[in-house]
Amino acid sequence: MTDDAPAPREEVAGFLRHLASERDLSPHTVAAYMHDLTLFSEYLGTQGQDGDTFFTSVDRLAMRGFLAWLKKRGLSQRSMARAMSALRTFYRYLQREDLAEANPARAVRAPKFERYLPKYLDRAQADRLFDAATARAMEGAFNDVRNLAILELFYATGIRLSELQGINRTDVDLLGQQLKVRGKGRKERIVPFGTPAVRALRNYEAKRDELVRLRGKAADRAALFLSRTGKRLSHRGIQQVVDGFLDRVSDADGLSTHSLRHSFATHLLDAGADLRAVQELLGHASVSTTQIYTHTSIERLKATYRKAHPRA
């Protein structure tokens, strides 16, 4: 929320505090809830609703009208479904606080959206990615050594961009070859990683220590991945690192930083890993989220079948 943005209603402000403190959701997630509630407030304003009737006069017809309004504005099915989920959570909070008698959002079915098959690197592309990054790191420059460590840890653990960006030095156990990750909702999990990542991290650690000594008090001594200025590497900085290497190994559209997470999950399941284990490693709350990667594997099997079987 910008400095000149109007302050949210007290009920909304209380809800946002509830999300941040009691549910311990990330600032990014709280901001997403705020965005959806602002849209809802804007819609009610177009219907002549004033502050006194903001809650009491809302029914399922108003909710359906809100969905139609969002669709007219060009929002995707996924964004519309997220907005309805936010409203259901919001009204559940209002009921708990005796600020609303009913939850009108529960009576409206959120629009279904197609689940996309995630873009990922095949094994050959992954090999080319790490060959290129390793060759650069062998030259010994700080950025190149750090970038290899980023790629190795990303692919070895399947963590999210935000999770990698927030890693502190104390979260990494090189002897135990495991990483403590703070995921969505600030939930912590332990994720293992292999020898290539250990080697890359040890090499980077030496370079990092040199940089910290050079930058002195200006350096962020807690953060694992640093920029040349000694500050924690930003989300955008990590994206630029990964995107630069992805552009070298593939001309395909749709590959992004998140593709390393997709590749991690897809390659594990292809090799016979248990779905529940992959769910734990990825930090998914529901196994249904992880199952999208089984669809990816099935589609590839079908493509292989159609190509190879004489009567396909």
Summarize the structure.
This protein is mostly helical and 312 residues long. Helices cover 57% and strands 4% of the residues. It has two domains: 10-107, DNA polymerase, domain 1 (Orthogonal Bundle), CATH 1.10.150.130; 123-306, hpI Integrase, Chain A (Orthogonal Bundle), CATH 1.10.443.
Textual characterization of the structure:
The chain is mainly α and 312 residues long. The chain has two domains: 98 residues, Orthogonal Bundle (DNA polymerase, domain 1), CATH 1.10.150.130; 184 residues, Orthogonal Bundle (hpI Integrase, Chain A). The protein is 57% helix and 4% strand. It contains 13 helices and three strands. A three-stranded antiparallel β-sheet has the order 1-2-3, with no helix packed on it. A hairpin with a 4-residue loop joins strand 1 and strand 2. Helix 2 crosses helix 4 and helix 5 crosses helix 9. The radius of gyration is 23 Å and the shape is globular. The N terminus is likely disordered.
Highlighted features:
mainly alpha, DNA polymerase, domain 1, hpI Integrase, Chain A, 2 domains, three-stranded antiparallel β-sheet, 13 helices, 3 strands, 4% strand, globular, disordered N terminus
Number of domains: 2
Unreliable residue stretches: 1-5
Q: Structural class of the helix and strand makeup?
A: mainly alpha
Annotation, overall tally of beta strands:
3
Per-chain topology:
Layout: H1 10-22, H2 27-46, H3 60-72, H4 77-96, H5 123-137, H6 142-157, H7 161-165, E1 172-173, E2 178-182, E3 188-192, H8 195-215, H9 235-249, H10 259-270, H11 275-282, H12 287-290, H13 292-308
Antiparallel strand pairs: 1-2, 2-3
